[in-house]
Amino acid sequence: MTRGRNPQLGPDGKLVHLLTLEGLPAEVIASILDTAEPFASIGERDVKKVPLMRGKAVFNLFFESSTRTRTTFEIAAKRLSADVINLNIGASSTSKGESLLDTIDNLVAMNADMFVVRHGQSGAAHLIASHLLATGKSHVHVVNAGDGRHGHPTQGLLDLYTIRHYKRDFRALSVAIVGDVLHSRVARSLIHGLTTLGTPDVRVVGPKTLLPASVEGMGVSVHHDMRAGIAGCDVVVMLRLQNERMKGALLPSSGEFFKHYGLTAEKLASAKPDAIVMHPGPMNRGVEIDSPVADGERSVILPQVTFGIAVRMAVMSMIAGA
Ligand code: CP
């Protein structure tokens, strides 16, 4: 891709795709979070719509299952007055062997303006963006809604929005990300976002088998003891065990995992008294998090979902140049 130095940015520095938070400048991330602020109040109005993307066709292409991301992208696009087409992948010609890029070409021929793509293969969204550029369709935008283990940039952004909402200044925070970091695109995106915004203390906590070998290179510290790992933290982010991505047995059992790394009220006591608890969902209660903590007063798990609508509105409207 030759659009400027970062393939996500146009020659004028404006966002044209959202593929990853890695390498996205701090001012662009801050601008997305700032743009999301006024959108958050639209959900509280009687008429939950603004005309910023009227007449634009947004295609939701979810090749992997999703509850939160697919639905909040659809709500966000509708609140921006876009036309939303949810391709039912299971009933599409993908099942007859049509390739990803042939599917894209056909949807472009239907005058698509934007693709929101979730795919099990790392790099799928990037591949589509490169293909659009190579085929002279660079006016069509791509948003990565999760690609393999690689990234989930809008989840990272909504996590950043949530942290900023409750804790204000990234430069004064300790954030612990706990559990299956190895298979987590959510963790990767959040780490890139936090370090870009200057968070001085980002920790990953988990057993050796569930932490990437080179994770220190991302600017985080590594902890294997849960209580020590979350000690004094302002934010505790719990991750789901991604059993669908695990090859072979990386853990003795989910019960053993809960004993050592499940977030209980007793373990949470080692974080700061006003620490918030986050989880991208879907949660597995009794595996990585105890129900009283998930539903407790320090949990901001459901506000994360609500903020996700405003953040996705910000991303789509900025990319569309609205
Ligand atoms: N956080 C997240 O990506 O959830 P879904 O898989 O339900 O979209």
Description:
With 322 residues, the chain is α/β, with parallel strands linked by helices. 35% of the residues lie in helices and 14% in strands. Strands 7-6-5-8-9 form a five-stranded parallel sheet. A four-stranded parallel sheet has the order 2-1-3-4, with helices on both faces. Helix 2 (68-79) links the parallel strand 1 and strand 2. The model has no long low-confidence stretch (mean pLDDT 95). It binds phosphoric acid mono(formamide)ester. Phosphoric acid mono(formamide)ester (CP) binds at residues 66-69, 146, 152, 155, 280-282.
What would a concise description of this structure say?
The chain is an alpha/beta fold. The protein is built from eleven helices and nine strands.
Task: Offer a few descriptive terms.
5-stranded parallel sheet; 322 residues; globular; alpha/beta
How are the secondary structure elements laid out?
Elements: H1 26-40, E1 57-62, H2 68-79, E2 83-87, H3 100-108, E3 114-119, H4 124-134, E4 141-147, H5 153-167, E5 174-178, H6 185-196, E6 201-205, E7 221-223, H7 226-230, E8 235-238, H8 254-261, H9 265-268, E9 276-278, H10 291-294, H11 301-319
Parallel strand pairs: 1-2, 1-3, 3-4, 5-6, 5-8, 6-7, 8-9
Helix pairs in contact: 1-5, 1-11, 2-11, 5-6, 5-11
Bound molecules: phosphoric acid mono(formamide)ester.
